[in-house]
Each structure stands twice: as structure tokens, then as C-alpha cells.
UniProtKB/TrEMBL annotation:
Subunit architecture: Homodecamer; pentamer of dimers.
Function noted in UniProt: Catalyzes the reversible reaction in which hydroxymethyl group from 5,10-methylenetetrahydrofolate is transferred onto alpha-ketoisovalerate to form ketopantoate.
Organism: Psychroflexus halocasei
Protein name: 3-methyl-2-oxobutanoate hydroxymethyltransferase
Active site: 183
Residues that bind 3-methyl-2-oxobutanoate: 45-46, 84, 114
HAMAP family membership: PanB
Catalyzed chemical reaction(s): (6R)-5,10-methylene-5,6,7,8-tetrahydrofolate + 3-methyl-2-oxobutanoate + H2O = 2-dehydropantoate + (6S)-5,6,7,8-tetrahydrofolate
Any one GO CC term of the record: cytoplasm
Length: 265
């Protein structure tokens, strides 16, 4: 395999090749993702929701993110692996942000970190970049500040919010971030942002005018029955596939159809 690097992503944007990105949280799923030749794997703090069952991303710890990231890294040969800095691991000051990022890089072997926010965290991003760690930004809907907004509805519909978002994106490019995730903002605005910077803008619920797309793997494989926002396309119905298989197994055990003579020693 030719490894995907932060440089290849910039090249892809230049060549008008869209970037595919998906989340993963464990070794087996990471292997499947890598065999599918997805460009970027995000060890998202959405693990807090889909792996641990929390309502928000706030409870997941740095140690837990490192556990997920190191599991994912062992399953990846090709993709670029980016890890979310979880809530509470970078907001205090640049030193804390750097310390947390170094822990992720050393203890998991990941290739880059991602963090939510614009100018509020500028100094922390600069400190991490100075240490040679690639940083991916995250603007628009930032789930770690859900209690500031109160809802997960579309962001930057107001002119002043759109203006700040555009300024933040330019700033992230200027200080040296290699890409930006843009979550749940109007497609027109997302396109404008993507066209205003040379680094890739990877959207989720941000329309087709950006440089790539990211989805949560459990959602796009249809493992979550309840979660169905408009932006989500389900590429499989694994919930049905898996419950059918499990019910069949249960019935076979009860009726003694499993195991048969060939499935024993
Ligand atoms: O944690 C996550 O899964 C994310 C993506 C939705 C971008 O941050
Ligand atoms: Na995240």
C-alpha cells in the first residue's frame, strides 16, 4: 500500500479528487475500513455515543481515546489516522493541549489530532503544530460545546455566525492546520469556505461543495436504528442483518440445530 499522508490530502484537493473519511473505534472495523481503501480514518470522540452509550461526547476520557486509537492503528496499513482530542484534554491552555496530543501520538501511534473550535483555541493549535503534530480543525456544529447551544440543529444560519466561521477557517489555514471538518452548516456557506482555503474542507451535513465527506461508521452502516438526520445516507442495514443472524442462532440453539455433527470434535 501507498500510505495516505497529510500531504496527499492537499494534493487530492488540488487535483479535484474528493476525500473519503469515516470513523472507526476498534481493530476489526479499522481493518474492514482499510481494506475498503477509505482515505482517512477518524477515531472520533463519537465513540462516547456509539461505543459507550453516552448521550454526548463530553464524558469520554483521554485514556479511553488512546485505547480506541491504538486498537484502530493496529488494523490500518494505508489510511491516515486522525484522533479527536476529547473534551477537557485541551481547553485549559496550550501546554495541556500539547501534553494531551503528545500522549495520543506516543501511546497510540496515530498520525494527527483533531480539535473543535476556532480562534478560542488558536494558541493551543499553534503550540501542537510547533511540536510537529499535524492538526485537523473542526468548525460548525461542535458537539463538545452542545450545552452552550442546547441543540444539534444546523449552525451558522445567521450572518454573524457565518462571518466568524469564515474567519476561523482562514485562520486555521494560516496557522498551518492540514484540513478542517465542517459539521452541519448550510451547503452554500460550506462551499464558500472550501473555495476560500487551499487546505481540504471535509464535510458532514455540509453538502457536496466541499472537498470530502465524513460519516460515523455505525450510522452509515445502519447499525443505529434511531439516529436518522437528513444528511445521513445509510449504505447498509446492518441492524437487520445482525438481528436476523442473532435470532437465527438463538432459534438453532433452542431447537438443537446448532451445533451439528460437523461442528463438534
Ligand atoms: O467524533 C466524530 O465522529 C466526529 C465526526 C462526526 C466529524 O467528529
Ligand atoms: Na468528534
Amino acid at each position: 500500500y501507498k500510505r495516505v499522508t497529510v500531504k496527499s490530502l492537499t494534493e487530492m484537493k488540488k487535483n479535484d479528487e474528493k476525500i473519503s473519511m469515516i470513523t472507526a473505534y476498534d481493530y476489526t472495523m479499522a481493518q474492514i475500513v482499510d481494506h475498503s481503501e477509505i482515505d482517512v480514518v477518524l477515531v472520533g470522540d463519537s465513540a462516547s455515543n456509539v461505543m459507550a452509550g453516552h448521550e454526548t461526547t463530553l464524558p469520554i476520557t483521554l485514556d479511553q481515546m488512546i485505547y480506541h486509537a491504538s486498537s484502530v492503528i493496529r488494523g490500518i496499513q494505508r489510511a491516515l489516522v486522525v484522533v479527536d482530542l476529547p473534551f477537557g484534554s485541551y481547553q485549559s491552555d496550550p501546554k495541556e493541549a500539547l501534553r494531551s496530543s503528545i500522549r495520543i501520538m506516543k501511546e497510540s501511534g496515530a498520525h494527527a489530532v483533531k480539535m473543535e473550535g476556532g480562534k478560542e483555541i488558536k494558541d493551543s493549535i499553534k503550540r501542537i503544530l510547533k511540536a510537529g503534530i499535524p492538526v485537523m480543525g473542526h468548525l460548525g456544529l461542535t458537539p463538545q460545546s452542545i450545552y452552550k447551544f442546547g441543540t444539534y440543529t444546523v449552525r451558522a444560519k445567521e450572518e454573524y455566525e457565518a462571518k466568524k466561521l469564515k474567519e476561523d477557517a482562514k485562520m486555521l489555514e494560516r496557522i498551518g492546520c492540514f484540513a478542517i471538518v465542517l459539521e452541519k452548516v448550510p451547503a452554500k456557506l460550506a462551499k464558500e469556505v472550501a473555495e476560500s482555503v487551499s487546505i481540504p474542507v471535509i464535510g458532514i451535513g455540509a453538502g457536496g461543495g466541499v472537498d470530502g465527506q465524513v460519516l460515523v461508521i455505525h450510522d452509515m452502516l445502519g447499525m443505529n436504528k434511531e439516529f436518522s438526520p437528513r444528511f445521513l445516507r445509510r449504505y447498509a442495514d446492518l441492524h437487520t442483518v445482525m438481528t436476523d443472524a442473532l435470532k437465527q442462532y438463538k432459534d438453532d440453539v433452542k431447537s438443537q440445530k446448532f451445533p451439528d455433527e460437523n461442528e463438534q470434535y
